[in-house]
Amino acid sequence: xxxxxxxxxxxxxxxxxxxxxxxxxxxxxxxxxxxxxxxxxxxxxxxxxxxxxxxxxxxxxxxxxxxxxxxxxxxxxxxxxxxxxxxxxxxxxxxxxxxxxxxxxxxxxxxx
Length: 112
Fold this sequence. Notes:
By secondary structure, this protein is mainly alpha-helical. It is 74% helix and 0% strand. Helix 1 (6-37) packs antiparallel against helix 2 (52-74) and helix 2 (52-74) packs antiparallel against helix 4 (83-106). The chain crosses the membrane at residues 21-39, 51-73, 85-111.
């Protein structure tokens, strides 16, 4: 009988989840940075570091969306969901998360 090492499998799953999370965060950061680059004359009442809040909040929302994407696609059989439905559901969750992160991050500045 061959003994299977679960520790090695866990490292592969952790790395895959980390890559998916970082990909979601990087995509969200790029979108928000592109959006904020178009701001020509920000209101002086916002302060000098007003850009940090939307960048951080949207990046965190993108990271969470990427992690949820990994979880849904990795465990879709255990959840009893068809893979196509899991892909569409994870994309929808990611987009809604980005939208809510953008609203939360831009509240009080560009989102009035």
